[in-house]
TrEMBL record:
EC number(s) from the headed UniProt entry: 1.1.1.-
Keywords: Oxidoreductase
Species this protein is from: Pontibacter toksunensis
Classification via InterPro entries: NAD(P)-bd_dom_sf (IPR036291), PRISE-like_Rossmann-fold (IPR055222)
GO molecular function term, any single one: oxidoreductase activity
SUPFAM superfamilies, A to Z: NAD(P)-binding Rossmann-fold domains
Domain of life: Bacteria
Record-given protein name: SDR family oxidoreductase
Residues covered by the PRISE-like Rossmann-fold domain: 66-355
Length: 355
């Protein structure tokens, strides 16, 4: 049977890497975004606003996917607004597709805020889970837009009869421009600025993150995981953590990242040094660097998301995830984390996003 994929959020880190893998595997692949400026050969772009049911119905009039991969979200001022907006995006999309009766499986990408709490209470006392994080851990007793998105998928699945999978990556490492959470590119830009200004490449986060164990999710691993769960019967109607498959400590990795950029690494010195503060005045200088080095993106805010990197690296506990559930069902893809970063940095340089 023909497999027809609809990737929602195709311009982001997760969506773009997923679309590339789907096309490579021979799927008919549609990519939906508000402005789907994706140059991937073989991708069929769909421009639509997820908050407009009328726009969605028109944009999807001739699209009847068998598999939907939802990788999109919008950041709002409060968690109540996050819930209202992000739940509506999932609901509107699945409502628009329901009359077609074509959807067999829906995969939803959320993340570790499922365990750590929403932005307003992120990794705060009273919400600190036991690690390694496991899928069996219950929801926190607090509002969370990830829970609202899940509930929309569950309700539509009960109504329309499709299967589902929930995917909870840790920090996703991969290339994208203009997205809201991008630790890998943020660190690349920060290191580039440090080299240009001869500033030290200072670790911005907490002692717990510096010394503790951590993991991340390569966008290519996540893409393979999404397709695996969508096409593996034993993985249907399940939630999964998904990470590279190894643990590391930032005090080990930081020196290696610094060596790649030829900058001086400075580790945790007893004080948190948020990147939002360190990079607050760097926008004009980046524009000058873009001219000097002929870079493709002069707007620093479209590359770096220091607020999100500060959230990740400022957590008061070590955070790592358990992959046993996926492993037991047959998903064995592994990625060395050091290479995830180096591959990203090379791609950014090749695409003239860093000098």
């Amino acid at each position: 049977m023909d497999r027809i994929a609809l990737v929602v959020g195709v311009s982001g880190i997760t969506g773009s890497n997923l679309a590339e893998e789907l096309v490579k595997q021979g799927w008919t692949t549609y990519g939906l975004a508000r402005n789907p400026h994706v140059s991937l050969e073989g991708l069929r772009p769909v421009a639509a606003d997820l908050l407009s049911p009328e726009c969605l119905s028109a944009a999807l009039a001739d699209v009847a996917p068998t598999h939907v991969f939802f990788t999109s979200w919008m950041r709002m001022e409060t968690e109540a607004e996050n819930i209202r907006v992000n739940a509506a995006m999932v609901r509107n999309l699945l409502d628009a597709l329901a009359p077609k009766k074509s959807v067999q499986h829906v995969a939803l990408v959320t993340g570790l805020k499922h365990y750590l709490g929403p932005f307003e209470a992120y990794a705060k006392e009273g919400f600190l889970p036991e690690t390694p994080l496991r899928e069996e851990q219950p929801r926190l007793d607090i509002e969370n837009f990830y829970y609202a998105q899940e509930d929309e998928v569950y309700a539509a699945a009960a109504r329309d009869g499709f299967t589902w999978s929930i995917h909870r990556p840790h920090t996703v490492i991969g290339k994208a421009v203009g997205n809201q959470m991008n630790l890998g590119t943020t660190l690349a830009v920060y290191a580039t600025i440090c080299k240009e200004t001869k500033r030290p490449f200072r670790f911005p986060g907490s002692e717990a993150q510096w010394n503790g164990l951590s993991d991340v999710t390569d966008a290519r691993v996540l893409a393979k995981h999404l397709i695996w769960a969508a096409t593996t019967e034993a993985a249907h109607n399940e939630a999964f953590n998904v990470v590279n498959g190894e643990y590391f400590r930032w005090k080990w990795l930081w020196k290696r990242l610094a060596r790649w950029f030829d900058v001086e690494p400075v580790g945790f010195d007893g004080t948190v040094h948020p990147l939002e503060d360190q990079m607050a005045q760097d926008g004009p200088m980046w524009r000058e660097m873009a001219v000097r080095y002929n870079l493709a993106e002069p707007d620093l805010s479209r590359l770096a998301s220091p607020w999100h990197t500060d959230l990740d690296l400022g957590r008061p506990i070590e955070v790592m995830t358990d992959m046993s559930k996926s492993r037991k069902l047959g998903f064995t893809v592994y990625q060395q984390t050091e290479e995830s970063f180096f591959n990203l940095f090379t791609q950014l340089r090749n695409d003239r996003l860093i000098p």
